[in-house]
Amino acid sequence: MAAESNTADAPDFDPRDFRNALGQFATGVTVVTTRTSAGEPIGLTANSFSSVSLSPPLVLWSLSLRSPNLPNFLQATHFAINVLARDQIALSQRFSKPIPNKFEGIVCTDSANGMPLLTGTSAHFECRTEARHYSGDHVIFIGHVLHYSHADRDALGYYRGRYISTAPIEPT
């Protein structure tokens, strides 16, 4: 089947079709956490996480301007990226919904900077907010990694609107 080609600035641009095209790129699944100005833990599911630089160690993620969590992340000086393991679909779903008390019954610890770290994940990245860039309908957050940890656990992935396993494939 031949690939479809569309022009983003055409008058008949279809945002849903564009989203489908973006879905062709498999991503990891994370829960980004921080604390409100009152000290309450908050978190949300994000698959926009990416590395930026090794020296200095920088990562990024983005958040919609329409997110009710945006004011909390804009005021935060620190945040944590929790890379979910393949058996943590329920956490991904929980933190993707606008429910109160997302942390109720969730096992987590606090980082040195007080950021909630979910247990059982594939990796954690504890970050100081380095920069925020407004672009399109999102804010891009760049974090300077202060501490990280990782476990030998397959990560949870997302592809074409569905969860996938990121188990390694040996090259032939």
What does this structure look like?
With 172 residues, the chain is mainly beta. The protein has a single domain, classed as Pnp Oxidase, Chain A. Helices cover 13% and strands 41% of the residues. It has 3 helices and 12 strands. A hairpin with a 4-residue loop joins strand 4 and strand 5 (58-64). 25% of the residues are buried.
Straight-line distance between termini: 25 Å
Helix content: 10-25%
**CATH class bucket:** Mainly Beta
Number of strands: 12
What strand order characterises the main sheet? 3-2-6-9-10-5-4
Which features characterize this protein?
172 residues; mainly beta; Pnp Oxidase, Chain A; seven-stranded antiparallel β-sheet; three-stranded antiparallel β-sheet; 3 helices
